[in-house]
Amino acid sequence: MIQDADFITKSNVPGPTKEEIRCLVVCKSQVNSNDIVVDLGSGTGGLTLEFAKRASKVYSVDKNVEAINLTSQNLEKFGLASKVTLLTGNATSVLDNLPPFNLLFIGGSGGELSVLIRKGYNKLKIDGRIIITAILLETATEAIQTLKNLGMDVDVVNVSISKAKILERGTMMKAKNPITIISGLKKN
Ligand code: SAH
User: Fold this and answer.
1) Quick check: CB of 50 below 6 Å from ligand 1?
2) Residue extents of the structural domains in the chain
3) Is the pLDDT at 124 greater than 90, yes or no?
4) What is the rounded CA–CA span in Å between residue 45 and residue 59?
5) pLDDT of amino acid 33
6) Among 1, 57, 124, 155, which one is most buried in terms of CB atoms within 10 A?
7) Which atom of ligand 1 is nearest the CA belonging to 46?
8) Residue from 24, 40, 53 whose mutation best tests the ligand 1 pocket (most atoms within 8 A of CB)
């Protein structure tokens, strides 16, 4: 896993997704070297880079051109640019022009989550997965309901990570916000 501190960051672009959460997303995705991956909401490139290290091809989309530029800088920094096509635009319209894929990761949806999931499902290969990370409870329930309605096998994990701050007088654990990771598997 790439360390959080090794990403180039910008104050007006969210991310990277914290290392421990990236670990869980990569684990749940079961991504492999033959996979075509789509990352909707590239942000800083946290997940785009992890998928680029493991998959055969990644399409990374963000509506914010500054996020796309930052993801591009991080890809260059880690020598992963050749595997990734960066696309600026709204995820709902960009999805229409992508080839079929094995994994769809949604890290930002701008209030269009169920539409994105449904569109993504139509392009998803059999045995492919859709993974959503949600900070809001409403986002999590919308994701779960939509995946269930599509007849997918659904897996939900909610994690609360605490990280140590090493102080002179001891080790203080600092809590991060809980995150829900929702995965759907497309059956035939
Ligand atoms: N996973 C990223 C962080 C994602 S933050 C990382 O680890 O670095 C969410 C991103 O989703 C933001 O950059 C935002 O611009 C983008 N976004 C939100 N809704 C979108 C939409 N409908 N289409 C494209 N990008 C979107």
Assistant:
1) no
2) 4-185
3) yes
4) 11
5) 98
6) 124
7) 7
8) 40
Fold (topology level) of 4-185: Rossmann fold (3.40.50)
Average pLDDT of 56-75? 98
Mean per-residue pLDDT of the chain:
97
Cβ neighbours around 141 below 10 Å, total: 14
Atom of ligand 1 nearest to the CA of 91: 23
What's the rounded mean pLDDT across residues 164-182?
Answer: 97
**E strand or H helix at 142, and its extent?**
helix 137-149
Q: Is 109 in the pocket of ligand 1 (CB under 6 A)?
A: yes
Please give the backbone phi and psi of residue 144, each rounded to the nearest 5 degrees, phi first.
-60, -50
Give DSSP secondary structure letters for 62-116: ES-HHHHHHHHHHHHHTT-GGGEEEEES-HHHHHHTSPPEEEEEES--TT-HHHH
CB burial string 1-22: b at 16+ within 10 A, e below: ebebeebebeeebbbbbebbbb
